[in-house]
Design a protein that fits this description.
The chain is built from four helices and five strands; from the N terminus they run αββαβαββα. The protein is an alpha+beta fold. It has a five-stranded mixed sheet with strand order 2-1-3-4-5, sandwiched between helices.
């Protein structure tokens, strides 16, 4: 992968802006996400927590859902911003500086070729590197 994190500065800024709108009263850990589609459109999302923790929504899935709702056909990149951390290398709660397992599965399904970049990781990552040997089924009504 030849792209550098700096190549995604505008997308990272959109993710940072989204993180400022996060609803995280329980963890205090605000996350924003921005998705870039092939048409150059950006869709954002933020984490939205709930007192019933299982009902919480991660920023990645919020942004991916917005992209699907907006008609995105080919997602090229996902940027994540962990707002409550000061800089690269600072440890996140439980090392959560990449998408969780549920979000990784969403990426495999909706953005398998996407590049993933965060304000905490030095280089962009592929979806396959985040979830090798992932569970995949070709949908009957494929979006491709």
């Amino acid at each position: 992968m030849t792209q550098k994190r700096e190549d995604f500065s505008a997308l990272l800024q959109a993710a940072k802006d989204a993180a400022g709108r996060a609803y995280a009263p329980y963890s205090g850990f605000r996350v924003g996400a921005a998705v870039l589609d092939a048409a150059g459109r950006v869709f954002t999302g933020c984490n939205v927590e709930n007192a019933s923790y299982g009902l919480s929504l991660c920023a990645e899935r919020a942004a991916l859902a917005a992209a699907v709702t907006g008609g995105a056909q080919c997602i090229q990149a996902l940027a994540l911003w962990f707002l409550d951390l000061s800089g690269p290398g600072e440890k996140t709660p439980d090392g959560a500086d990449t998408p969780c397992g549920a979000c990784r599965q969403w990426l495999v399904e909706l953005a398998p070729e996407a590049v993933v970049v965060t304000n905490q990781t030095p280089e962009p990552m592929s979806v396959d590197s985040l979830l090798p040997n992932s569970f995949r089924i070709q949908p009957k009504n494929s979006r491709k």
